[in-house]
Design goal:
222 residues, mainly alpha, Arc Repressor Mutant, subunit A, 0% strand, elongated
Length: 222
């Protein structure tokens, strides 16, 4: 038994906080893994809250502010990531307010430029398809992404040329059904099958569905 595991729950918690701020769930999980009894965990959490060492609402606000100048993820992706960190849905629902439309648009503009550079050598049609998928993975919806391509077309860019509207629709519905089935708790092969089935019911061809599922889902997700 190491020295750290012999510390009282509250001191263990303070040590865990010394690296970075934690959500209440992260702290509860940490103490539980160290075989601390539930009543002792509750007492430690109450004490941490009393001294304001743990404050999920304050932490959420700060992470949103940091996101605007750091990773610059879209609201959708940020909600998903912070939910995985243990933030309650009642708090992640505030992200729409904490990140205003102008900030969201600025984050999208930043990643749009990154995507332009990343896929600069791809043919126009494929380039737009890959850029759209790249931006969706970072939490931006198709309805927000599309105007960026439209504005490029207005200035004479060839980004729009050669794009198949069906590809854009497929990306849009893939993102929609991926979010829907993920929220229901499906993962792995089951997630793949359900998303594929949803897309097939929309009338998309099997080969196109298989291609986008294999491209967009990480290997461990299917």
């Amino acid at each position: 038994m190491t020295y750290q595991t012999q510390l009282p729950p509250f001191e263990l918690a303070l040590n865990y906080l010394s690296y970075r701020d934690r959500t209440e769930k992260e702290m509860r999980d940490y103490l539980a893994k160290r075989h601390i009894r539930e009543k002792a965990i509750d007492a430690a959490i109450d004490k941490l809250k009393y001294y304001d060492y743990i404050n999920d609402e304050r932490l959420l606000k700060r992470l949103c502010e940091q996101n605007a100048i750091g990773k610059r993820l879209g609201r959708r992706r940020l909600k998903r990531d912070l939910k995985q960190k243990g933030f309650d849905e009642s708090l992640t629902g505030r992200i729409d307010t904490l990140i205003d439309d102008e900030t969201e648009k600025a984050c999208l503009a930043y990643h749009f430029k990154q995507a332009e550079k990343r896929y600069a050598k791809d043919p126009p049609g494929k380039r737009r398809q890959k850029m759209t998928a790249y931006l969706m993975r970072r939490g931006f919806g198709y309805e927000a992404i599309a105007p960026f391509f439209d504005s490029l077309a207005d200035t004479g860019s060839d980004e729009r040329g050669g794009t198949d509207p069906d590809d854009d629709q497929l990306l849009f519905y893939f993102e929609k059904y991926y979010r829907m089935q993920s929220k229901k708790g499906y993962t792995g092969r089951e997630l793949q099958m359900r998303v594929s089935r949803n897309l097939a019911q929309r009338g998309f061809p099997y080969d196109a569905i298989r291609e986008i599922v294999e491209r967009e889902l990480k290997p461990e997700e299917f």
